[in-house]
Amino acid sequence: MKVLIVGAGLTGLVLAHRLLARGADVTVATSMSSEELRRGSAQMTQLTLPTALGLERTLGLDFWEGQEHLFQTVSMTTRTRDGAEFGFTGHLGAAGAAVEPRVKLPDLLEYFEDRGGKVIIHGITLSDLTVFTRMFDAILITVGAGELGHLFPADPSRPLAAERQVVSQVYLHDFPEAEAEVEVYSLADGEVYVVPILTYEGIAHSVMVTARPGTDNPLDLSTIRKGDVHALLAERLPRLLPELGERFTKATLSDPRDTLLTTVTPVVRTPVARVGTGFVVGVGDTVVTTEPRTGQGWSLSTKSACFTADRMVEHYNQHGGFDEAFFTDTFTTLWNEHIRHTASFSHLVNAVHTGNVPPELMAAMATAATDQRFANAWVRGFDDPAELSRMLPMA
């Protein structure tokens, strides 16, 4: 089986390693070399939750587990629009991790090549794909933007809580730690994540804010320059979260490149697109842009990549080739088994931020504050949103 993967994000690289480990002939095409990835701008912090970390471990991709960035405890603080506040701390039951993309992605790319995979450092155009569809058994597109990302139209039958969000983020060193290793604050205006993360300069803390757009929202920094993110958060966080804001101002930003300001619109797209006389397949961010407030991005990417790779190998060994129906069915199965539960999670989070919190969820929040077993189950549901769907009122 001869496969071309376009893109060297997490989805593409996990796909590449999984297919290579199962005997496929795999080529990764990327517009940036590993060194260029290391020197690039900061990207959005992503969590690798326990199940995804276990999948990485089976592929020998757990290079960083000896570091001190692993986390197991998560504190949740929710403040609704009417002023009600709930808080609890739960235990994941196993370790999760955050490794910044400028560390993780180039390491995975280089290791793929060391293991015998082929890497092409070249941007791939639509006209290139019309030729490549005749040269490979499958072409998997794992870039979520640009000309290739737009090949795949949105699928209105599979909605996420598709509210555009403004994401601002900084990496801080010497950040005063709290009782829980990961902190999540759900406010009327947005979500704040505080996560220990392994960066190219060692262990730091990522402070990531996702905000609904609006000039009346103090957490929406979209009208400023990226270089002002740190200063604006240092000014505004203490007004909304005084204790966190005080800790924020005591920490240091050592590199101006360690700031991020971007927008994200959650969407689900169709997984197959015609190109010339052939077709290409979207995987990961190309077809599912997740709700950043749920922290599911990289975990879902890892699960999707492994699921897709395994199904491809099994099908090819039995039938010797692929058609569009196979990949459409693969995505449908993936949606039913994994993605729809993440979509439900995004609707739940959106309910908190739009003031539409059902009474059952309010009651569950109150229970989590007094029942440690329930709090642990809630936090472990981040790793498996299907479990969260069973225990919470999620649409």
Kindly summarize this structure in a few lines.
By secondary structure, the chain is α/β, with parallel strands linked by helices.
Structural overview:
- There is one protein chain.
- The protein has 395 residues and is an alpha/beta fold.
- Helices cover 39% and strands 24% of the residues.
- The protein is built from 13 helices and 15 strands.
- A 7-stranded mixed β-sheet has the order 4-3-8-9-10-7-11. A 6-stranded mixed β-sheet has the order 5-2-1-6-14-13.
- Helix 7 packs antiparallel against helix 8 and helix 11 packs across helix 12.
- The radius of gyration is 21 Å and the shape is globular.
- The mean pLDDT is 92.
Average pLDDT works out at 92
Number of strands: 15
Q: Tell me the overall shape.
A: globular
Estimate percent helicity.
25-40%
Instruction: Tell me the fraction of residues in β-strands, as a range.
Output: 15-25%
